[in-house]
C-alpha cells in the first residue's frame, strides 16, 4: 500500500560505521575560594607559566560563569592527556603549598568534577573500573551522591599524595 523508497536505506550516520570519539575532553576541578588569589594573582601569571610549561590551556571560572551557590571556582584544563596531567599536577602542587603540605608523602584532598552522566562509566560494572583506578593510583576516592547545585556535574573527591591524586584523575578520564 505504501510506495517503497528507491535506493539504499538512509542512515543518519551516512552509512559509516561508528568511530570512537577521539577529541580530547577537558578536565575540570574545583579551586577553593581561598586559593583563587594564590593561583590567579599577578594577572594569572602562574597559570600562564603552567600553560606554557605543559602545553595545556587552563581557565579559571569567574564570578559570572560560576554557579551562584558554588563558592569554589572551576578550573578547566584542555589539551592532550599528558598536557592535562601536567597542568593538573601543577595545580595540585600549588594547592599543597598553600596548605603547607611540603612533604611529597603527605596526604592531601583534591576535587575533580565530571558530568553526572559519566559517573556510571567511571564506576564500571560492579565497580570494576573505579577499583582498577584506585588500585593503580593508590588514591582514595569519594563520589558525590548529588550533583553540584545548579550544574549537571558530580564532584569526585580524591585523597592521597600529589602523584596518587593526579594518577587517579588521569585514570578516571581515560
From TrEMBL:
UniProt xrefs under InterPro entries: KH_dom_type_1, KH_dom_type_1_sf
SUPFAM superfamilies according to UniProt: Eukaryotic type KH-domain (KH-domain type I)
Domain K Homology residue range list: 38-89, 111-172
Any single Pfam family the record assigns to this protein: KH_1
UniProt KW Isomerase keyword: no
Keywords attached to this entry: RNA-binding
A molecular function GO annotation: RNA binding
Domain of life where this protein originates: Eukaryota
Protein name as annotated: K Homology domain-containing protein
Taxonomic path: Eukaryota, Sar, Alveolata, Dinophyceae, Gonyaulacales
